[in-house]
Every structure is written in structure tokens, then in C-alpha cells.
Specification:
Rossmann fold, 6-stranded mixed beta sheet, alpha/beta, 10 helices, 4-stranded antiparallel beta sheet, 309 residues
């Protein structure tokens, strides 16, 4: 895996003493889509801002394309496109002017053919002469993406790109992201939408309290999502799991009125038949059985939940 973005032991401590990033280590492969999940205040936006050179790290190092983001700011920034959460656009400016102007900010010569391609890819070409104020919220977000792509970046950051966008437009934007990946652009997106990460990401990272808790291939996470949980409701409550059932990893639930059993649906044998026989042999009478599928959301919630006091 060739890393186009490499983050080593990065910290960010503000003057107030708040530690927004706490020893972050992350390599992002060229051409991949990485979805970064985390609750509000987890450090997602701070991490993106640090990579983009908007915020300087207190410690550690970040390179983009082999260049240090602090020492070689111009070189790294020219390789990066950033689509921020906030829609900050000049309302009276025309779409094509806004996108063309962003290209000029990076010192690049005008390229009408590239600007046209960007606008067509984002379904904005028929709106090219419209004023920003005339566009819907979803279309304004597309203009932000167009501005970020105007200088042909190798890395694109999307900070909550579909926030406030309806489901249909969200799926359209997913298709845009897939097309950009096909063209070799590396994409890092932050999102609150679990289904967004499931739909388009190659890898999924979870950040909380400024720390990376997990970075894993989506396929591996999907394999974890193959796990199911069986809830066994008992006729009478029990205080402990009988010793004869110790090998199943059963957990007491509902104050001893239920047992839970986790099993992997991808395996040839789930062990359910033997478990049910052993439950009967242990003298436990079943009242009801229910199964539920684990999900990426379950994994996310488990990772970021506060430990009980």
C-alpha cells in the first residue's frame, strides 16, 4: 500500500489546554476512499484542518505526497481539495465564475475544458450561468465540490458532504465520489451517516476524543457484521450461567431472565443446535428465542460509548 497521506503521532493542544488530537497515526493509501466516523467533537474536522495546513499540529508530523504539510505548505496544499461543512459562497457570483476563480487561486492557468468537465460531472453545467443564490442547498454543496476540484487535486477531503441533503441527492453524490475514485483521486470523508460509509468507503476509521479507535477494511467490518446475537428468554430467571454451558460465552441479560449467544453466520456450524440441547440438559426451560443482526452502527456505538461508572 502506497500512502499518499501519512500521519505520525500527531497532537493538537489549544491554548485553553484542550487536546483535540491525541497521538493520531494513520496512513491513507493513494486512490482509496476512507470514511472517518465519530461523534460531534471527536476531532474529525480538526484532523482534516491539520492535514490541509489550516491548523498547525502541536506535535508529530504529516506528509502529503511525501511533502511535510508545515515545511512544504504550498506543495501539499496544491495537492489537496477541501470541501468544508459550511456553505460559504458569494451569493451573487455565477457558478462557472466561482469554480474558475478557485483554480486561479492556486496559480494555475485558465482551463475552460477542465472546468466544463467538472461542472458536467457534478450535473452543474446547465446551471453554469446561474447565480449561487438561485441554487438549492444540494446544488450549492456541488459547487463547493467543483471549487475543490478546480485545481485537479490528488487528495479530496469531504467534511460532512451530504449534511442536510435529501436521500436522492445523497446517492447522486456517492456516484460522483465513485467516479472521482475511478479517476485516481484519493478521498477522505467525514460523515454521521453510517450507510454512507457502508456504501462508498474502502476503509472505515473511527475517531473519538482525538484518538483513532479503529481503521479497518470495510470488507473485514462486513465480516464482523455477519455475527448474530441470539437472545434466549428463560421461563425462570437464573443468577449465573451454569458451569456446563461455560464454553458458549453466554451472557446474562434482563436481570437473569435471558441469555445472549453470539455466533458467526459465515461459519459452517453455528453451534445453536448443540447449545439448545445443552440448555435442556442443564434444566433451563426456554420461553422464547430471538435473533438480531449486528451492524456497523453497533460496532461504532460500542467503540465510542462512555464506560459505565
Amino acid at each position: 500500500m502506497t500512502a499518499i497521506v501519512s500521519i505520525k503521532d500527531v497532537e493538537k493542544i489549544y491554548d485553553s489546554g484542550f487536546k483535540a488530537l491525541d497521538g493520531v497515526n494513520l496512513d491513507i493509501a493513494e486512490g482509496e476512499i476512507l470514511a472517518l466516523l465519530g461523534p460531534n467533537g471527536a476531532g474529525k474536522t480538526t484532523l482534516i484542518s491539520t492535514i490541509c495546513g489550516i491548523v498547525q499540529p502541536t506535535g508529530g508530523s504529516i506528509t502529503v505526497g511525501g511533502y511535510d504539510v508545515v515545511r512544504d505548505y504550498r506543495a501539499t496544499r496544491s495537492m489537496i481539495g477541501l470541501v468544508p461543512q459550511e456553505i460559504a459562497l458569494e451569493p451573487f457570483e455565477k457558478v462557472i465564475s466561482a469554480v474558475s476563480f478557485s483554480r486561479g487561486l492556486f496559480g494555475l492557468a485558465p482551463n475552460p475544458a477542465h472546468i466544463e468537465k467538472v461542472l458536467r460531472d457534478l450535473s452543474l453545467w446547465d446551471k453554469k450561468d446561474a447565480k449561487i443564490m438561485e441554487l438549492s442547498g444540494g446544488m450549492k454543496r456541488r459547487v463547493l465540490i467543483g471549487k475543490a476540484l478546480s485545481h485537479e487535486p490528488r487528495v479530496l477531503f469531504l467534511d460532512e458532504p451530504t449534511a442536510g441533503v435529501d436521500v436522492e441527492l445523497r446517492k447522486d453524490m456517492w456516484a460522483v465520489v465513485e467516479q472521482l475514485k475511478a479517476e485516481g483521486v484519493t478521498i477522505i470523508l467525514t460523515t454521521h451517516y453510517i450507510e454512507e460509509a457502508e456504501a462508498i468507503a474502502d476503509r472505515i476509521g473511527v475517531i473519538n476524543k482525538g484518538q483513532i479507535l479503529l481503521v479497518q477494511d470495510k470488507a473485514d467490518l462486513m465480516h464482523q457484521m455477519g455475527r448474530k446475537l441470539m437472545r434466549i428468554e428463560l421461563q425462570n430467571f437464573v443468577q449465573t450461567v451454569p458451569d456446563a454451558l461455560a464454553g458458549y460465552g453466554l451472557q446474562l441479560a434482563d436481570e437473569g431472565r435471558s441469555l445472549t449467544y453470539a455466533y458467526d453466520t459465515s461459519k459452517e456450524r453455528t453451534g445453536i443446535t448443540k447449545l439448545l440441547n445443552d440448555l435442556q440438559a442443564a434444566g433451563l426451560i426456554l420461553r422464547d428465542i430471538q435473533t438480531e443482526q449486528s451492524s456497523l452502527e453497533d460496532i461504532f456505538v460500542d467503540l465510542v460509548k462512555e464506560p459505565s461508572a
